Amino acid sequence: MGTLRHILRRLLTMVPVLLVVSVLTFLIGRLTPGDPIEAQFARDHTPEQIAAIRASYGLDLPWWQQYLKWVRELFTAGGGMSIAQHRPVFEILWPNFVNTLILTAAGVLVCAMFGVLIGVLAGIGHRRPLDRLTMLLVQVGGNLSVYWFGLVLIWIFSLRLGWLPTSGMYSRNGGGLGDLLAHLVLPGVSAGLISMLVLARFTRLGIIQESSSDHVRTFTSQGVPRRILLGKHIGRNILPAVVNIIGLEIGTLITGVFFVEHVFNWPGIGTQLVNAVLGKDYALIQGGVVLVALCYLVVNLLTDIAVDALNPRLRR
Amino acid sequence: MGVILLLGALLLTACGGGTSAAGAGDRAGGSAGSGGAPRTGGGLVVGLYLEPLALDPHRQGYWETYRVSSNIFEGLVKEDLSDTAGPTKLLPALATDWSVSKDGRTWTFTLRQGVRFHDGSPFDAEAVHKNVRRVTDPGYEFYDETSAARLKNWLGDLEEGRVVDEHTYEFRFARPFLGFPRILAQSMSTLTIGNPATWERYGNDGFADHPSGTGPYTFVSRTVGDRIVLRRNPDYWGDPPYLDELVFRIIPNHQTRLAALLNGEVDLISYVQPDDVATLESRGFQVPEGHGAALLYFTFNARNKAFQDRRVRQAIIQGIDRERLAREVYNGHAVALGSLLPPGNEAYDPQARDFPYDPEAAKSLLRQAGYGPGALGFTIVADVANQNLAEWLQSHLKGIGVNVEVVTLDRPSYVARAFGRPEPEDGLSIDEYGGSYAEWLQQVINTNVVPKGFDLDAHPDLREAVEKARYTADADRRIELWRKADEQARREAIAIPAVSLTRYYALGPNVRGFVFPATNWYDLTKVWLAD
């Protein structure tokens, strides 16, 4: 019951956050230079026609009215009409958003699998060569640009070795889970890279700290095998922290995924939003940002619930 | 970590069930060897650098849109896209024949019989009439204001469009319009024929989601940001195309587009970067040499007082070495231009030169206009894609004592500032466009020079020369008149033509039959794939 109340409270706190996000997105779009209607129609439309088109999008209204109109359209008209595509925003964004979630999931998988693996290896071999080497790689990797890293991956695995496709989601003949997975490898690794390194560092630290805690030292002196110590005691104790980090990193990952989509031409929401930003397609940008913000909040909520479930001491 | 990544990659590829790693799959279809004879079948994947706009014959914009949509829609007239030098010949398309009245005002088209739109609706004079009404007649239920604005430049003088009989259609203009058939054969902002049954069913906004025309390929699907798929039209009236399927993938990132071609995932890309030409050729890829009808050119912000003085405009032109620009910015994969009528244009004159590169003459002109060394300064406004060009101009113009600042903006901000609200110190902006029709000169003046503050009324000779050419009823003198108008435009130094790119497309080693025509789009019906 307490947990349910906690979830409800968290759900309620999402409302003001989304409200602030929506106001900020709305204002930032309007404060930056450039005019989408002029950009699209200036060459071959008269000023009167441009004014009429502007009015048809409600862009002639005072700002506060434009904002309210947009909020209303979020619930009733699919997020308003895209200026460039003349279609409801969510109708455009949904299919791409699903693709972004697929890529994000791949990134999370890479992050969770390899982040924990690297962290555990380094933690177990604390101060040994493997630990030092791993941490050096983590240090170097943490400073890599995802953009550059993606291009290097394409160069090695696609152009030199010819193992994996360079870009897109499906090959020319399309279709099939295998085809999709092959296309997911490189962008997934690029997307998960930074978060994987963060997770590796935390996992390593967790293992080192837990290993030197009183109870583990006691178990060690009692002759409990190291395998059981690691799996049952240390592992279980650091698991909530690991889940928490993964949850937090998903947020970072969603924003990082946009760069990855650009490099690998993944047909996700990032590609759409870059196009929308280039075209100053207000409704599309705003709809996209709200969608991403909502996603971020939901992931945080789910992480909290998972951490709660894993660590009864945190339950209220 | 590298090993782990490698292992992960291998693991997931294995999960892929042995999918062709490069994603190349079956290319050509059929089993015969390659040889020289064209083969039918297979699919061509094209990598576009821009997301096409609406696939609506009357709303479309950008060349990349037309490279897709010209496979779906056709006009009454078409250009000969096997012509690499230009001016292209005009060929019958949906009209088999056309004639003009003596006064040059009435055009009569005989329409091709037995043609059907992709949904089976008949193509006839009534269908043409609905296309005309959609873009000119506010009384028509499906009148489309957006389309009407785009076509106003050419159909603004239309007095009446009339169905003469089922296969004859007549346009009557208020003034002579001898350039009309070639304009009908163009890409954007002209009367390409769409299927009226589709907009009557889905509405004007819905048309682009269900594009239907008479072309050699039918629309299958579009995933914005990813791909557009077309399939061969089995009922096409003309010579059937060789390829079964066309897939247009949208890959804006230059490196990714190049990598996709190198890896065999796409067969044809556009907007090849000059630096990549050598790489592609060394690996057996084809980078045909040619030129479209597009040109890169710089326009003045005539609201800036300095550029109201012709001597200053001329000085800037004489201060830019366009041959060197072609060499240094485009690795020599461009030709320097001296006129706003580019190669491929029907009025192109290879001898036409505005002013030769002469830095001393430029400095002297600036002095005469009251600008000693270092006294003239302005801003070049460019969109981000042209940043390197703007920076080159910045360093180059120092040579004649002109101080330049560079501002690069995303495309909409660029358009809004260059065309809408320039800052007072703005001097030049960089554009790319061009057509194969002589009337292009009028278009560039109306849509790019005048909107930037150039007062045509203060240059009656130029205005008169353009009007004389545009509304002449003398077919024999039309091109000559346009060249005269261009000469007048050059004399007034209204803008700076710069270069035309010559290595624009790249193709996989097995693509055959592709021609780099003297227009800005190509014909894929003659393209086939060898082994």
UniProtKB/TrEMBL annotation, chain A:
Record-annotated membrane-spanning stretches: 12-31, 101-124, 136-160, 180-200, 238-264, 284-307
InterPro entries: BPD_transp_1_N (IPR045621), MetI-like (IPR000515), MetI-like_sf (IPR035906)
Family annotation (PROSITE patterns): ABC_TM1 (PS50928)
Residue ranges of domain ABC transmembrane type-1 in the record: 97-303
Topology in membrane: Multi-pass membrane protein
Pfam families: BPD_transp_1, BPD_transp_1_N
Annotated keywords: Cell membrane, Membrane, Transmembrane, Transmembrane helix, Transport
Keyword Magnesium set for record: no
One GO CC term, this protein: plasma membrane
Superkingdom field: Bacteria
Main location, first listed in the record: membrane
Compartments in which it is found: Cell membrane
Any Gene Ontology biological process: transmembrane transport
Cytoplasm keyword on record: no
Protein family (similarity comment): Belongs to the binding-protein-dependent transport system permease family.
PANTHER family attached to this UniProt entry: DIPEPTIDE TRANSPORT SYSTEM PERMEASE PROTEIN DPPB-RELATED (PTHR43163:SF6)
Protein's name in the database: Peptide/nickel transport system permease protein
The species this protein was found in: Thermopolyspora flexuosa
Native organism taxonomy: Bacteria, Bacillati, Actinomycetota, Actinomycetes, Streptosporangiales
TrEMBL record, chain B:
GO biological process, one term: peptide transport
Keywords: Signal, Transport
Solute-binding protein family domain sequence ranges: 90-411
UniProt entry tagged with the keyword Transport: yes
GO molecular function: peptide transmembrane transporter activity
Signal peptide interval: 1-24
Pfam families registered for this protein in UniProt: SBP_bac_5
Domain of life where this protein originates: Bacteria
Database matches in SUPFAM superfamilies: Periplasmic binding protein-like II
Entries under InterPro entries matching the protein: Peptide/Ni-bd, SBP_5, SBP_5_dom
GO CC annotation terms, alphabetical: ATP-binding cassette (ABC) transporter complex; periplasmic space
UniProt record similarity statement: Belongs to the bacterial solute-binding protein 5 family.
Xref: PANTHER family: OLIGOPEPTIDE-BINDING PROTEIN APPA, PERIPLASMIC BINDING COMPONENT OF ABC TRANSPORTER
Protein name: Peptide/nickel transport system substrate-binding protein
